[in-house]
Specification:
14 helices; eleven-stranded mixed beta sheet; alpha/beta; about 350 residues
Length: about 350
Amino acid sequence: MRIAIDAMGGDFAPQEIVAGALDAARADASTHILLVGDESAMRALLPSPFPANLELVPSTQIVEMDESPSHALRAKKESSLAIATRLHAEGKADACLSAGNTGAASAFALFTLGRIKGIDRPGIATVFPTAGVPCIVLDSGANVDCKPQHLADFALMGAAYAPAVRGIIPEQAARHAGQKVTVGLLSIGEEDSKGNELVKASREGIAAVAPRAGFEFVGNVEGRDIPKGTVDVIVCDGFVGNVVLKLAEGFANLFLGGLKDALLSSPQSKLGALLLAPALRRMRTRFDHSGFGGAALLGVKGNCIICHGSAKAKAITSAIRVAKLVVEAKVPEAIARAAASNPTLKDEKTKDGNSGSQNEA
């Protein structure tokens, strides 16, 4: 398997991107990693010799984190992000990955790889740790203004992606093998009457898609259902999803930081921490969002993984593992089949017309 990585995108690029790619290459010789970026900068960060399954692909431009997607598309055709995406489009890589500018990464994927027929807007599917099977929240930032048919798209795509996500925790995947994927609509209450106009208008479309796409729609769910693992997929617009994502990350860091301070606050607590160390490490591993890697951009004709801008080496290594799961599960093909089997969804789009362009959070 070949994965193209934008080595120059992200708050800690290229150091952390290269380190994560190197760890992944050393761990799995069957994965061939194409690191795209400033060759001299990348080479300076690698041992000599470096693994044979790690290849450097030179680029001459960088898409900055605050650069507009439209400008990047016009002016940065030889950037590390553009070349990594192009390598995938040309069949020289099975997936592409970036921790850089989310809007630009989405735009390059959409215009280079193309959109799956029947899907109006691609969405970012973020995986959250839960008490059970990891939960997908979709959309988590690609589309801040949505219409009901977009949320129906997200439900369909999330359901197609969920079996691959279960593979992140193999024991959970085995436990839920053969079970129908469950999808919920994020709202302020479980009752059908709760929610804003978008939520209320989306219920009928998602319910119509469910039997054809093969998932179970459970209706409204609340924010607290995410950590509970109540459903496999939670659907919302990108504005709400991005707020949920960043709030969850902030609280996770607050909790882990507070726990560390408490355990180191006295000699007695330090002794207790020493005794609890194995259990605490297991807990941290389970709930550390960096262990879930990047978020898949669903709805494009390819396998595109978008990482958090602050991703460090561990998150990049995990994202490469997620990219492999997406490729092996043939997620774009599953989405295309589900979209083709949903005339109701396509008819609704025909009535509404073109929904407009994407927005990045």
